[in-house]
Amino acid sequence: MLEVRDLQKWYPLGGRRRDVVRAVDGVSFDVRRGEVLSLVGESGSGKTTVGRTVLRLQTPSAGSIRFDGQDITTLSRRRMRPLRQRMQLVFQDPYASLNPRMTVERIVAAPLEIHGLGGTRVERRAKVAETLQLVGLLPEHASRYPHEFSGGQRQRVGIARALITEPELLVADEPVSALDVSVQAQVVNLLLALKRRLGLTVLFIAHDLAVVGHISDRVAVMYLGRIVELAETRALFATPRHPYTEALLSAAPVANPAARRDRIVLAGDVPSPLDPPSGCSFRTRCPYALPACAAERPVLREMAPGHWKACIRDDLALRAPF
Asked: SS3 helix, strand, coil % of the chain, rounded to 5?
């Protein structure tokens, strides 16, 4: 469904030095039809920028993006418009992403009006009611305003808005991070049910590995604008092959309060994407770094069927906390 090759998104800062912020710096991955691929990593790793760039909400600096076999990397806004109803975005913040002056009916029906879908006003109203029921809301909720709903209900409205054009690809940008823990599971289970029922392909962006492990078919781990590990979910959780993945897994909460684990605390802060380290971008915080790690940027290599990593050290026996 989605093929991304050597994607870059750099933001020039101007000035005499012509500095650039390397938000995404050479990312490649595929999203298979009907699967959930998750992008995980710390804040500032470039996950959201990848999601917005593959939807062409931002113009890539380099690389290529193919959606359902069609190269959309350089398409104009006019040529992208027919494709937008087939690819939709669920925003992170259910409070900021809904217009407080519009009723739920107008919010959810807006994509139909923009793309000229849904027929008459009566038919659109029926479509809105049907979509609200699909996400677990009632048809009578259509006449209410966003402030009358809880955070979880608002996110359901946002999901309904994304689904009303019957898209094939859904980019979910940390859709549960702004919600209470008790509500997060409801929204994740809703997305899973919708994925199975509608045959959706999902690019799921998150930093919570507990959520990612529940919803994903495969996981791509990002650090400072690059993918450092990519594998099927079960393989990545059972046998992490990159030190950064090992550290992320050690920090993920577990349901058993009696379970004891050795937490890996990384030294220092994430380097600036304005001036990333030479060689491996993780080497300045990696407990296993060698002098050779500074010499050359490691490429993403397939270490086992479907399991890729960007690390020069093949002698490490990394721990799986689960």
From this structure: 35, 25, 45
